[in-house]
Amino acid sequence: MSAHAPTTPRFKQNAREALANKNIQAAMGNAQAGFVAKRAAARAALPEFDDIRDAARDLKNHVLANLDAYLERYEAKVTAAGGHVHWAETAEDAQRIVLDICREAGAKTVNKGKSMISEECGINDFLEEHGVRAQETDLGEYIIQLRHEMPSHIIAPAVHVTVPEVEAEFRKAHTHLDPGRNLAELPSLLAEARGVLREKYFGAEVGITGANMLIAETGQSVIVTNEGNGDLSQSLPRVHIVMASIEKIVPTLEDASTVLRVLARSATGQEITVYTTFSSGPRRPEDPDGPEEYHVVLLDNGRTGMLGTEFQEMLRCIRCGACMNHCPVYQSVGGHAYGWVYPGPMGAVLTPSLIGVEKGGQLPNASTFCGRCESVCPMRIPLPKMMRHWREREFEKNLTPSAARWGLAAWRFLGTRAWAYRLVTAASARALALAAMGKGRLARLPMGGGWTAHRDFPAPQGRTFQSQWRGER
Amino acid sequence: MPPSTPRVALLVTCLVDTMRPSVGFAAVRLLEQAGCTVHVPVQTCCGQPNYNSGDRDGARALARRMIEAMAGFDFVVAPSGSCAATVIKDYPQMFAGDPEWEAPARDLAGRTHEIVSFLTDVMEIDAVGARVPARATYHDSCSGLRSLGIKDQPRKLLASVEGLTLAEMAEPEICCGFGGTFCVKYPDISNKMVSNKTADIAATGAELLLAGDLGCLMNMAGKLSREGKPVKARHVVEVLAGDTDTPAIGEGGK
């Protein structure tokens, strides 16, 4: 599935289908409680957690205010260590850069650690189209690659898939294994995936990973994983490509540790992930192993356009997924309904920035502004506020549906004229109360089908408060 | 410390004004019991529907009327965490940099409170004289909870209601799916969310659902009645004021 054909404009339809999909509903129901409880426990176990969030927010704000300087410092360090930094203004630039490196290396197969930036650039499909096989090595990514799907979650890409579905997919793909084998239990699925993927590690000429951070003072890239697949993907092949977006920079190792202290806790409730890997460039003469070539593809793809706007704070995001783990909308419909790479609240803000509000505008509207995302965000990103900013952009560009515009104009008219408000509210309250015929509720409402399709409409009591207070008849 | 008999303006909210005036009268009773003089200036809507729909100009137009209407009172009190949060948190941002309106917006924001937290935190009330024998559960509406930090205040006052026991939901802090225009723009998702909520309510065995915002209550009450679940829904101030004669939300009679 190409990352370049967003179904985001069909969000409502996608959501309806997801709500009717029993497998998605079962998988989402199982996942949510675990994420929420584990984060809460991790937070409770670290009294200074919220102070570290403040520090992490401040350090990322500092980076964003000095992004150019830190990027240049980082590039100089990478170059000094014998690596190469490639600047990609667009996803297409990044595709071309990666393909060129693969061709130079004579690569037929590329092993991949998990990378959302590679998803954003649609690297897998692009490489396949040009004769290079991209092999995902993260278990979740491997599962969705078999299913020809995009990730539905930024850290748990196959969270929408049930265990029996994984079993069916493995039986279909791993035909060289005994058809009579027992795959009913989770450990047997894990063991099978590990066995199959192990063989693939040695066949790839190029390894691609993402980066959770890029450290300016050392020129290192950092990945956090739980499976160890990222390490194998980047240290076994002859060429290592890091794909990262420009806002992943932190100034120092010390700063990186500040971010690490909130990252895993917010994401999975772990104090730290099983592996935290720092890559410093190509293998040096005295190193026993490591890649001969080290490339970093730095992607902009619209991010510099967010600097200096009301969306700048979104660039603090460290991709932990806490916002979607706590979002009742995401939990209801799953990640694929969002129709592009980034789902949930962070996706609702980021997607319109990257693919345009014309295509992505549904997402920031599909929120009750309940604020739970902001309350758990380790970087304290005001996600609801920024979703509202997108609604403002839509309104200014006349993209808001005309019925809604008329409604808002009418409400403004009434709300700025007390006499008109009084007349209309009094008449509506009386009419709806009469229509309820003493039952206190309405099963149907003219122009209110969205409400009454699923619930009754409690009828008004009859006379408005203000008319009663003032003793009017 | 508040003045001995503070002059309080009731920001009744357009929903209570139109749909459920009895909540307004219960609010007045509680404020008077607490020693306030209550006024009800002529008013319309705080502007939140426009603000959250991206209509900044419309929102500011409504907000200016509200700021004018509420001028001169010691406090402005609303039976809604959502509307109160709009005035307290959003008005200052709406008028940031506006030479004429920023100061009055900030002034109003500083005087405005949600009613239950006003009673406990400003008027320092820790008990009400009501008697309501019922097993109740309390839903934390999102704006009140996360924008204004209202969590313990209603529980503290409900604990003083004679005969009332509180049975907490497994997840009282999760959104009910109302979200203003969200529930009609995205009815399928809203339905899923409110269904989760009514299941959680039913699991408590409570016969009475309470919350501090009428929008959420109408959503949950409408779903409970559609599902035939025998749970009555009331605004928390009705119970605190001892008003159980008024038919519950969505209930007929009288």
Automatic annotation (TrEMBL), chain A:
BP terms from Gene Ontology: lactate metabolic process
Gene3D superfamilies on file: Alpha-helical ferredoxin, NagB/RpiA/CoA transferase-like
InterPro entries per the UniProt record, alphabetical: 4Fe4S_Fe-S-bd, 4Fe4S_Fe_S_CS, FTHF_cligase-like_sf, Helical_ferredxn, LUD_dom, LutB/LldF, NagB/RpiA_transferase-like
Annotated keywords: 4Fe-4S, Electron transport, Iron, Iron-sulfur, Metal-binding, Repeat, Transport
Pfam families xref list: Fer4_8, LUD_dom
Domain 4Fe-4S ferredoxin-type stretches: 307-338
Entry annotated with the keyword Metal-binding: yes
Record's protein name: Lactate utilization protein
Species annotation: Thermohalobaculum xanthum
From TrEMBL, chain B:
Top-level taxon of the source organism: Bacteria
Domain Cysteine-rich residues, every copy: 8-86, 137-220
CC annotations in GO: cytosol
Name of this protein: (Fe-S)-binding protein
A molecular function (GO) term: oxidoreductase activity
Pfam family, one: CCG
InterPro entries in the cross-refs: Cys_rich_dom (IPR004017)
